[in-house]
Amino acid sequence: MRFIVDLLKGIFIGAANIIPGVSGGTMAVSMGIYDKLMEAIGNLAGHFKKSFKTLLPIIIGMVIGILGFSLLVPHLLSNYPFQTCMCFAGLVIGGIPELVGKTAAALKKEKRSNIGPFHVIFFIIFVALSIFMALSNPSGADLHDLTMNFKNFCLLFGIGAVAAAAMVVPGISGSLILMMLGYYESILEAIGNLISGLKSFNWTLIGQNMLILLPFALGCIVGIILIAKLITLLLKKFASVSYCAIIGLVITSPFAIFFKMDKPAFTPLVIIIGIVLFIAGLFFTYVLSVKTKGKAETENTSSDAPKKRKR
Q1: Is the Cα torsion angle 260, 263, 269, 272 positive or negative in sign?
Q2: Interval 193-221: pLDDT, tens
Q3: Which of 44, 38, 43 is nearest to 13 (CA)?
Q4: How far is 127 from 110, CA to CA, in rounded Å?
């Protein structure tokens, strides 16, 4: 059951990374798995077996989400922008209570009764950062000729590292970074062509697009590992301040989602469907959060039981 729940969360994180303005890191926070995801990635070398077991369902889900939604999400955003954005906004906002609870727990562990000036300062800084990213209007979203050579291999590796590092940080959209660098459409087209090649067993098309996506994927792996180590350190050393900064990014994420939305023709039906999907997103995130938290508490209790008997 735990595997299936984490798989579903991974799918939504992968889908979030496709949408410019939506952060995969924010979705991971909302789904209640951000901490364990960063810890597993950061400890991959030291505790490979345990970290791999944690990461496997999430990574599989992310791959399914990216491949599956790379074709579906652009279609939904073009034809049903308000409804799609309302659904993702609900998924994001549904995780805020869990995040507030983690902040309170961190304050208690640090023996603080209230938040201090640094909590407020970092909250405001990251709210401003999230709004700045949303207001960014990238102009380089054109297609690039990605004929594979050593120069383009290194370029795609570097772009993958930068974009993936952004994807990991809540509130910062990796897709938006790709648009600002001018490679969003090229990468999305390569993913679409790879899927088409797999469907038709066109090995030439598969090979061409694998050559484009492989260095990008390798760069993503390196970028994620490096930034995960930094975030894990921050969450250990400055937990409550880090959570306040993350809350600032998450709270403003819906603004980014709707700011990048194509303006739809509003009708009563469109609004009603949007509200229903928003509530469904809230409920879905809450249910996944509760299931994960309950399972974790059960595992912790069972693991502590033998220790108590020994005493």
Answers
A1: positive
A2: 888 888 888 888 888 888 888 999 899 88
A3: 38
A4: 24
